[in-house]
Specification:
Chain A has 348 residues and is an alpha/beta fold. Chain A has two domains: 186 residues, Peroxisomal Thiolase, Chain A, domain 1 (3-Layer(aba) Sandwich), CATH 3.40.47; 143 residues, 3-Layer(aba) Sandwich (Peroxisomal Thiolase, Chain A, domain 1). In chain A, the strands form three sheets. A nine-stranded mixed β-sheet of chain A has the order 5-4-6-7-1-8-13-12-11, sandwiched between helices. In chain A, strands 3-2-14 form a three-stranded mixed β-sheet. The longest helix of chain A is centred in the middle third of the chain and has 19 residues. Chain B is globular. The mean pLDDT of chain B is 94. Chain B has a single domain, classed as OB fold (Dihydrolipoamide Acetyltransferase, E2P) (Beta Barrel), CATH 2.40.50. The longest helix of chain B has 6 residues. Chain B has 134 residues and is mainly beta. Classes of the chains: A alpha/beta (348), B mainly beta (134). At the A-B interface, helix 3, helix 4 and helix 12 of A face helix 2, strand 7 and strand 8 of B. The complex binds zinc ion.
């Protein structure tokens, strides 16, 4: 049996409200809030990037796993905002944790799905027996173009999972994937902001892949929606995952623990993994968790985990996700946000 | 801007992991590590990692910043008395510098320190943030 031995998240301290962004662009805040199911989003400090978020989340995972970092044989960092175009984020994370030099490292990229990609690889690598422990991180500090709808949701955060084969906090039951080549969202090399296919991002993209992955996963595991205690879907906004849950036969008590987007925003590669971290923070033992990511381009990874008694022992050993989200925040105005996100350029 | 790739790289253990040297003879902890113990002249050390926890011993607020730190002003630079007993100087972030007090509990986080221009190396290391007991 393989699964999660430690997990952790990191959320920047700063927040900006939908009203504050809407004010600058003359947009109607109430309709954006209602349309996107979003009130505010996290903003990284000027000294935070994908690598720092990944390291801080991984340190929290290491506290819960309580293992020697030298035992980590693989480190995968999924992001679409790696700080270097060429030079791995994974080596920075491995070095900061103390996992170097006997470690396999790779940076992954697949829009918002890169985090669960790392989890998929880490779990199956441990299962194959190649490594004792593997770390997977989803971390992003994503940007939306000023005035674009994405600017209301593009947020920052990270979640990290250490996979192993003993002392499991959550056991992996099975995985399932659903991929096609679908051009709903992209960013070309050297382009600063992404492009998206407008309404094409809904039904043929998010819904088709996420619904198919969910249905396939449940069928493969011979389970029904009511057998699942907690469900986490990718959260590009606060509305898509709720609509998806309802259409697929899940009810609010099943998705509420993992639904962070209304006050966090879309943390891209960190999105559904952070939802999983928040769920593990509060889940009961011996319950099934369904996690389904979505990444534009496009595809979904699905996982079913079963929580164990061990989870209850380790979860207080590092900061909880909800607490970081709800209690550790400072609101900023658009001017400060624009400075933090380097939307205002100064002379060098 | 001058590139200091090799020097920065050599400082990785202390910047990334807060690795200190503990004297095998007198148990004094040195951060950054030293070759000779100033307490007992011992030359043998064990590598230890600082816990990252401590309290603010003193601080100052920087309003006119050196190159590369301009976007951060006003920001605090403090001396933190680590729980291991030694003192470490670093930036204190994620706070309103005006609200800091000597004796505040702080914890280390991994942050971007600076970058060598737009196309150069990014420097990472430790900074401290208020310990909110999260
Ligand atoms: Zn000594």
């Amino acid at each position: 049996m393989v699964g999660i031995v430690g997990y952790g998240s990191h959320i920047p301290r700063y927040r900006i409200r939908v009203e504050e962004i809407a004010k600058v662009w003359g947009a109607d805040a109430p309709s954006y809030k209602k349309g996107l199911g979003l009130n505010e989003k996290s903003v990284p400090a000027p000294d935070e990037d994908c690598a720092t978020l990944a390291v801080n989340a991984s340190r929290n995972a290491l506290r819960r796993a309580n293992i020697d970092p030298k035992q980590i044989g693989a480190v995968y960092v999924g992001s679409e905002s790696h700080p270097y175009a060429v030079k791995p984020t994974g080596t920075i994370v491995s070095e900061a944790l103390g996992a170097c030099p006997f470690v396999h490292t790779a940076d992954l990229e697949f829009a918002c799905k890169a985090g669960t990609e790392g989890m998929f690889i880490a779990l199956h690598l441990v299962k194959s027996g190649v490594v004792q422990y593997a770390l997977a991180v989803g971390a992003d500090t994503s940007q939306g173009a000023p005035g674009d709808a994405l600017e209301f949701s593009a947020a920052a955060g990270a979640a990290a999972f250490i996979m192993g084969s003993k002392n499991l906090a959550a056991e992996l039951l099975d995985t399932h994937c659903y991929m096609t080549d679908t051009p709903d969202f992209w960013r070309r090399e050297h382009a600063y902001y992404p492009e998206h296919g407008g309404r094409f991002t809904g039904k043929p993209a998010y819904e088709k892949h996420l619904f198919s992955a969910t249905a396939g996963m449940l069928e493969k595991a011979k389970l029904k929606p009511e057998d699942i205690s907690y469900v986490i879907f990718h959260q590009p906004n606060g509305k898509f995952p709720v609509n998806a849950a309802q259409k697929l036969g899940f009810k609010e008590p099943q998705y509420k623990l993992g639904l962070l987007c209304p006050t966090l925003g879309n943390t891209y590669s960190g999105s559904s993994p952070m939802g999983l971290a928040a769920t593990l923070d509060a889940a009961e033992a011996d319950r099934l968790i369904l996690l389904v990511s979505y990444g534009s381009g496009a595809g979904s990874d699905a996982f079913i985990f079963r929580t164990t008694e061990k989870l209850l022992e380790i979860r207080d050993m590092a900061p909880k996700t909800r607490k970081q989200l709800d209690e550790h925040k400072q609101y900023i105005e658009y001017g400060t946000y624009a400075k933090f996100r380097r939307k205002i350029l100064r002379a060098e | 801007m001058a590139m200091h790739v090799a020097r920065n790289w050599r400082e990785t253990p202390e910047r990334y992991r807060m690795e200190a040297a503990k004297c095998k003879k007198c148990s004094a902890i040195h951060f950054p590590a030293r070759l000779i113990c100033p307490e007992c002249q011992g030359r043998e050390f064990a590598t230890v990692r600082l816990s990252g926890k401590g309290e603010l011993a003193t601080f100052t607020i920087i309003r006119i910043a050196p190159t590369g730190f301009g976007d951060l002003v006003p920001y605090a630079v403090g001396i933190v008395k680590m729980d291991e007993g030694i003192h470490v100087m670093a930036q204190i972030v994620d706070c309103n510098p005006e609200e800091l007090k000597i004796g505040d509990r702080v914890v280390s986080q991994f942050r971007r320190i600076n970058q060598e221009g737009k196309n150069g190396m990014i420097l990472y290391g430790y900074k401290f943030v208020p310990d909110l007991g999260l």
